[in-house]
């Protein structure tokens, strides 16, 4: 059986991991996604395929 101290540690680790996931999602939506799209569009314009 898990002791209460260990359970508290696991809960804190879970909360931290959720915060990390949310922050990564925000970064993806606000920065990374737009950067990748613009980079791919520039590459497509510079090096037309087909």
Q: What does this entry look like structurally?
A:
This protein has 50 residues and is an all-alpha fold. The chain is built from one helix and no strands. It has one helix at residues 4-46. It is rod-shaped, with a radius of gyration of 20 Å. The protein starts with a helix and ends with a helix.
Please specify the SSE layout and strand pairing.
Blueprint: H1 4-46
Give a brief outline of the structure.
The protein has one helix at 4-46.
Number of separate helices: 1
* Percent strand: under 5%
Mean pLDDT: 93
Low-confidence stretches: none
From the helix content, strand content and strand pairing, which structural class follows? mainly alpha
Q: What is the terminal separation in angstroms? A: 63 Å
What's the helical proportion of residues? over 70%
Taken in chain order, the helices and strands follow as: H
The number of E-state strands comes to 0
What is the CA-atom radius of gyration, in angstroms? 20 Å
Q: Report the principal-axis shape.
A: rod-shaped
Largest sheet: none
List keywords for this structure.
86% helix; 50 residues; 1 helix; mainly alpha; single chain
């Amino acid at each position: 059986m898990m002791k209460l101290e260990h359970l508290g540690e696991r809960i804190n680790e879970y909360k931290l991991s959720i915060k990390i996931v949310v922050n990564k999602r925000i970064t993806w939506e606000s920065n990374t996604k737009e950067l990748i799209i613009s980079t791919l569009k520039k590459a497509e314009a510079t090096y037309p395929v087909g």
